[in-house]
Design goal:
The complex is a heterodimer of chains A (about 180) and B (about 180). Chain A contains eight helices and no strands. Chain A has about 180 residues and is mainly α. In chain A, α1 crosses α2 and α2 crosses α4. Chain B has about 180 residues and is an all-alpha fold. Classes of the chains: A mainly alpha (about 180), B mainly alpha (about 180). At the A-B interface, α2, α3, α4, α5 and α6 of A face α1, α3, α4, α6 and α7 of B.
Chain lengths: ~180, ~180
């Protein structure tokens, strides 16, 4: 059984650098996916991840375990992207284009898949920013409600309601 | 009519982290709404950004080196992906480090204040967390009732767009 995040954090606080390594290994894939899907620039990804983890370990004394560590790390990532966005003068960050994804092979299937995807993207664009972000964190990034709440500085109840609302509105777009 | 617990579990089932029960499967067979919602989640998951290729160990080492530096300046990550341009970087890095260090020194106070700030307590919509499980189900079910009325999308309430005050009024109405 692997140690929990809390146990690794306790080890890190006692000076165990190996615990930091394990925490970075554990959370890098999800954070990497999140950052990639929000900034779409592979060249910056390592530096972005380094910055997020650097800020996290610098501020780890402030994490008291009342919010899930993964959600807390995502919050740092969200805030870092927000800072970057502001520094770049508010330019809109790109999301992954459907052209970047694997070709399903069958042209009819491909057409159908693209159509559904476009409908989904249109539906996503029509959601409120909070609903959209909650839905993406919950579905695409695999966070649970408590982690979503920690990442977006809201409550688990609000996260759940936003997610439900997003699913229902997206369903209407796909009809 | 969809059931809230199914929507809650869709992401985990779609990622194969859990399975539907036989009762759930029966419900899906009979419920077009739930199947449509399941399609939304499956489609979103199928089209999510792929896992990027990143060197977690290299990042961890860079972070640890950086934490030990008084300046906290960004440290190049020692990965194969970066090695080819290391020679070109040589001289440029020396100059860049000076510039970055100066920039970091100027902005560090603000940035580290953000990074080290303690976790803010979740204060948004706290009333939702105060709801009992049954009350939450009623709220979620009421959203379903709105949809079941087959109204156009426009007039449907957008919870995320409501102000805290408006949401409180809505919740009071739901709770009676």
């Amino acid at each position: 059984m692997h140690p929990t995040d809390e146990e690794y954090v306790a080890l890190w606080r006692r000076g165990d650098e190996g615990a930091a390594l394990e925490l970075v290994r554990r959370h890098t894939p999800a954070l990497g996916r999140y950052l990639r899907s929000r900034c779409a620039d592979d060249a910056d990804l390592d530096d972005l991840l380094q910055e997020v983890f650097f800020r996290a370990f610098q501020g780890l004394d402030g994490w008291r375990g009342d919010a899930p560590l993964r959600g807390w790390l995502f919050r740092i990532a969200v805030n870092h992207l927000r800072d970057q966005h502001r520094r770049r003068g508010g330019r809109v960050m790109l999301t992954l284009l459907d052209d970047d994804r694997a070709d399903p092979g069958d042209p009819a299937l491909e057409l159908e898949a693209r159509e559904s995807l476009h409908l989904l993207q249109a539906g996503m664009a029509a959601l409120s920013p909070m609903q959209r972000e909650v839905f993406r964190l919950r579905v695409e990034d695999g966070l649970d409600y408590a982690e979503v709440a920690a990442a977006l500085e809201t409550t688990t109840g609000a996260a759940r309601v936003h997610y439900h609302h997003a699913v229902k509105r997206l369903k209407e777009h796909l009809r | 009519m969809t059931t809230p617990h199914l929507i809650d579990q869709m992401p985990e089932v779609a990622r194969s982290e859990r399975e539907w029960t036989s009762a759930d499967v029966e419900h899906f067979d009979a419920c077009e709404q739930c199947r449509a919602e399941w399609q939304v989640v499956e489609l979103a998951l199928a089209n999510r950004s792929p896992l990027p290729e990143v060197d977690a160990d290299g990042i961890a080492q860079a972070v640890l080196r950086r934490l030990s530096l008084p300046s906290g300046a960004t440290v190049p990550i020692e990965t194969g992906r970066h090695r080819w341009w290391r020679p070109i970087l040589g001289l440029a890095a020396a100059a860049a480090v000076v510039v970055v260090a100066m920039t970091q020194f100027r902005s560090r106070t603000d940035e580290s204040a953000v990074a080290a700030s303690p976790v803010r307590e979740a204060t948004m919509l706290p009333e939702l967390d105060g709801l009992l499980q049954g009350e939450m189900e009623v709220l979620l079910a009421s959203m379903e009732t709105d949809r079941a009325a087959e109204e156009p999308i426009g007039p449907l309430p957008r919870l995320g767009d409501l102000t805290d005050t408006e949401l409180e009024l809505l919740l009071k109405e739901v709770e009676g």
